[in-house]
Amino acid sequence: MTRTRVLFCDFLGLPKGKYVQPDLAKSGDIGFAACALSVSFDRDLLNIPGTGLFDGIPDMKLSLEKETFKSWQENTEIALGDLKFEGKEYDLCPRTNLKKIIKEFNDLDLKPMVGLEFEAYVFERDEDGVWIPYNTPGAFVYGTGPSNDPKNLMGKIWERATKMGLPVESINGEYDNGQFELTLGFDEALKACDNAFLFKTMAKEIAFQEGLILSFMPKPIPERGGSGLHVNFSFVDKSKINVIEKDGKLSEIANDCISGLIHHHEGLSALLASTVNSYDRLQPASMAGYWANWAGDHRMVTIRTSTSSSNSARIEHRTADGAGNPYIVTSSILKASMLGIKNKYKLLPAEDLDGMENVRATKHVPSSLSKAISALENDKVLKSKIGENFCNAFVEIKRDEAVRLQDKNIDEIREYYLPFV
Length: 421
Prior knowledge:
Blueprint: E1 3-9, E2 15-20, H1 22-26, E3 29-33, E4 59-64, E5 69-70, E6 76-85, E7 88-89, H2 94-107, E8 111-125, E9 131-133, H3 153-164, E10 168-173, E11 179-184, E12 187-188, H4 189-209, E13 212-215, E14 229-236, E15 245-246, E16 249-250, H5 252-263, H6 265-272, H7 278-281, E17 294-295, E18 303-306, E19 314-317, H8 326-343, H9 369-378, H10 380-386, H11 388-404, H12 410-417
Parallel strand pairs: 1-6, 17-18
Antiparallel strand pairs: 1-2, 3-4, 4-6, 5-6, 6-7, 8-9, 8-11, 8-12, 8-13, 8-14, 10-11, 14-19, 15-16, 18-19
Helix pairs in contact: 2-8, 3-4, 5-8, 6-9, 8-10, 9-11
């Protein structure tokens, strides 16, 4: 092992870090400018609250976990950790924010378990070097093999993930040509998000080495379906019993979680669907989390539940997309769920209409990133739970992004995001 790649995931979902000597990584702390959290996709340095732009651009430290990960790069190990500022927990660290809500559930003798399902499109270059959708005319939904993936990109990703010990549960062709579903196994919440962060980074880099882009943009091709990030979660108690289900039905805790997610649906949207392009995907009559509704085995609702067995009982939230930060997405869903447990919001009846032409829900996600940001700012209870300082920083960088793209067409927006997400 000749080098350690130290990584953290920023507000934009980017894997920022350094290569360092393994002995330096073992020292535990690696320095970065705090304004690393303030840089837009097009590399403008923004005045994001809490990052010290006008205080001399001070350092923050990435405090590394002792456990390292195998890498997809030769002679390299990977180390993850939590951001610290002035020797203390950094309010702007997404991973630390997730740890805090995990502890809240632990204090209730519950352990959050999470499984993440990504969807993504593959792009390749045409003769002029322009990025175009993967040429798979024989692809079909739930397809496997060369008709869906002629360059075997998914096979290469699977092989690397297996060597790294990342728990890939399944990969298959999604609804549209060149689109894939990549499902990771359930694990404890922090471990699941670490795995998702590394898996997404690895998959994109493997694709790039093959001359391709694996894009987690929510709606990169207007005439094709969107790509989401489905967050499945449950809780186990001290006896390792899944508490989402009781006697074949949703438990009180499960109903409370759903009530919190429904109550804070509009405010959550900016945190879960954090790009301008996200709101092209989030539309009515789509298999995305547009409406503030829930049901059992129903793919047209936002919150889908399963109680078919005690082991697999879970809540599935379908608003998020893979363009964002998995730590932010997961912690936000868990925090809204905790608000439901604590505040005992009234839970509306399950959706019993088709969700395509008919729906009972009246509340839905905002129509744009700008409006979603406003909804988050107006949801004082959710904002307080997420963290005032964290939300202020997140809102500032995302508002700047929304303004930059407000007059752009879909091709310009795709060009802006495609190299990064």
